[in-house]
Amino acid sequence: MAENVIPDSQDGVLQGLMSDIAKGVKTKLVEPVIGENRKLGTLLEELHNKDQKEFAAIGARLESLEAAVRETPLLVLAAIKEAINQAGMDEKA
């Protein structure tokens, strides 16, 4: 068991190396990924807001179209009624 014991001086060196490795991994690998994730999150939020505005505009246009479709039968019936009335007046004349 005495073979596996690390002297205090080597322990400090190993801890320093491990600390340097951890800092390097964080700086070179983790921080760039986190930065890109933040950028992507911001872009996704902007796209979501843009989509919400577009959906609202489409909804408003759809409501307008729906109202026009509801009015169409009334306009057709009114035109038919007017045509019948005009045809009836032409016959009397």
Features:
91% helix, 1 helix, 93 residues, mainly alpha
Strands, count: 0
Runs in which pLDDT lies below 50 for 5 or more consecutive residues are none
Mean pLDDT: 88
| Structural class estimated from helices and strands | mainly alpha
Short description, anyone?
With 93 residues, the protein is mainly alpha-helical. It has one helix at residues 8-92.
Provide structural commentary:
The chain is mainly α and 93 residues long. It has one domain. 91% of the residues lie in helices and 0% in strands. The protein is built from 1 helix and no strands.
Write the layout of secondary structure elements.
Layout lengths: L7 H85 L1
